[in-house]
Please model this.
Amino acid sequence: MKKYVLLSFVAISMLAACHESANHGAGVAGGQPNAIDSAAQAAAAFKKTVISLVDYKKDPACGMPLTAGLEDTTRYKGKLYGFCSKECKEEFLKNPDGYAAKSK
Ligand SMILES: [Zn+2]
Model:
């Protein structure tokens, strides 16, 4: 009889522990700010990677350093160009040779 009581006590404390960790897990998964943070971190990491891949560290259209902002890229004659905005990319594509020459 004593053994049975002890066993049920262990079972109850295990259930309680499970319940607590389940609650904790749900709290983390449901944490919107955490999800946004990791998305922002992933975006920042992605931009760092792209900046390390572009052949020039400046936006060829406006001359802005890409570390200040990188929205788009295009490959032209084997070189990868980064742009601070879609407008700059469009500007570059109007006269890629002219801007490419300036980038050198
Ligand atoms: Zn620009």
Notes: Residues 45-103 form one domain.
